[in-house]
Amino acid sequence: MKAIRSIRGMHDILPDTVHVWQELEHQIRRQLEAYGYQEIRLPSVEFTELFARSIGDVTDIVEKEMYTFEDRNGDLLSLRPEGTAGCVRAGIEHGLLHNQVQRLWYLGPMFRHERPQKGRYRQFHQVGIEVFGVPGPDIDAELLAFTARLWRTLGLRNLRLEINTLGTPASRARYRDRLITYFEARQEALDPEALRRLYDNPLRLLDSKHPDTAAVAREAPTLFDDLDAESRAHFDMLLTHLDTLGIAYTHNPRLVRGLDYYTHTVFEWVTDELGAQGTVCAGGRYDGLVEQLGGRATPAIGLAMGLERLVTLLLAQGSASEPVGPDIYLVVPAGAGAGPEAFALAERLRDELPTLRLTLNCGGGSMKAQMKKADRTGARYAVILGVDEIAAGTVVLKPLRDSAAGQLTLAQQDLPALMRARLQRQPGGPDR
Ligand code: ATP
Ligand code: MG
What are the extents of the domains in the chain? Predict the structure, then answer.
């Protein structure tokens, strides 16, 4: 029978790398808490209409990347391609947005039917952050300070911040007209898709990955000249904050985001070390979206980090955490499997040292085979409980990682205290 395989672009994350994910998620969570952000958990499936109304009909995501299906009730649903729409939907639905400040975050899989390649998958994971109710550039700066600190904490290097402003809807409308005029005059040089989008969504042409269109886009006028005073003041203040915070940035006047709803600030954290998929975090302000989805006008800003890309970068830069083996591998060479004495000892150790990592050898095996297994788990110590030890009420403690340290025999009741002392002195010990 032909084996069933995973779907193209949707990957298993195996135990040998999952610790990198866990450590990354742990650091992100810890820092989000430290900055006063609250987690929100959202469904993975929403009405298709939600994405069409927020992301926009004339975007890659809605036109060709969504997993859309009719469910058994005949409702048109989509797997979420991103989290902002669902977060805004939930905020409006539960009255979280009006007249209050919300700092929210979520983590989870997103789904886009893209061409799979390095750093681009059909199921991928994002941590998203959304802040509602703060109109000024102080919150924009806070988000950037947050991400800059996160890269430092994670030990990531060579990430650069590109930043731009898309202004208010009014300045954007003026710019739109100017762009259409510019591209219209160069129609023969555009690819068919760009031509089709020219009148619906000319800003998207700036983002085009088609070489011909990209070449024309490189010479296009920038929005900066169309900025009104308010937009310029917002942007200038943000740059002042970044200077104060010591966060380096490049103003890239051609940076536009893939999604339609952005206003004012847009930004990306980019690396050259991941090939073509170098953006690990992207975001911006979307002051119009809450109202567009039926809520009362609420200023908002958000970002999303691609966790696959961050994991790849951590591994590439040698900053990924090491896998953590057990503290103790309990070797029980007495009979066919772990006996009552072994369980009693294991459970007693777990009672006394609640964060102890202990693996009990189940399934029997010779002393030699069990010691081999112990070594393979990366355990720090083997604790041996054979027939002689059971009879004498002792155990043998054998360090596995420190060749200089010898093994010792001790009374079973002395083991918890000894382990507590030894593990506390090591990073990753039970009291970390
Ligand atoms: P791109 O231009 O690379 O397609 P995007 O504008 O579609 O990016 P966003 O929607 O802003 O990306 O998503 C935020 C982040 O999520 C990206 O910067 C990236 O790190 C990650 N991401 C987006 N799409 C994918 C994907 N298909 N596979 C893996 N990560 C992704
Ligand atoms: Mg995309």
Answer: 15-168+228-316, 328-424
Question: Residue 230: which pLDDT band, with cuts at 50, 70 and 90?
Answer: very high
Q: Which residues contact residue 389 at a Cβ distance below 8 angstroms, ignoring those fewer than 6 apart? A: 395, 396, 409, 412
Q: Which of 51, 59, 84, 120 to mutate to test the pocket of ligand 1 (most atoms within 8 A of CB)?
A: 120
CATH number 3.40.50.2300 given to 15-168+228-316:
no
For 81-122, what is each residue's pLDDT tens digit? 999 999 999 999 999 998 999 999 999 999 999 999 999 999
Rounded Cα distance, 391 and 315, in Å = 48
pLDDT tens figures, 233-246 = 999 999 999 999 99
Pick one of 3.75.10.10, 3.40.50.800, 3.40.50.970, 3.40.190.10 as the CATH number of 328-424: 3.40.50.800
Which atom of ligand 1 lies nearest, measured to the CA of 268?
18
Q: For residue range 8-62, list pLDDT tens digits in order.
A: 999 999 999 999 999 999 999 999 999 999 999 999 999 999 999 998 877 788 8
- Residues of 320-347 as b/e, b for ≥16 C-beta within 10 angstroms? bbeeebbbbbbbbbbeeebeebbeebbe
CA of 243 from ligand 1 middle (Å) equals 27
Cα-Cα-Cα-Cα dihedral sign, residues 136, 137, 138, 139 = positive
| Best residue among 10, 84, 273, 279 to mutate for probing ligand 1, ranked by most atoms within 8 Å of CB | 279
How is the beta sheet containing 408-411 ordered, strand by strand? 358-360, 328-331, 381-384, 394-399, 408-411
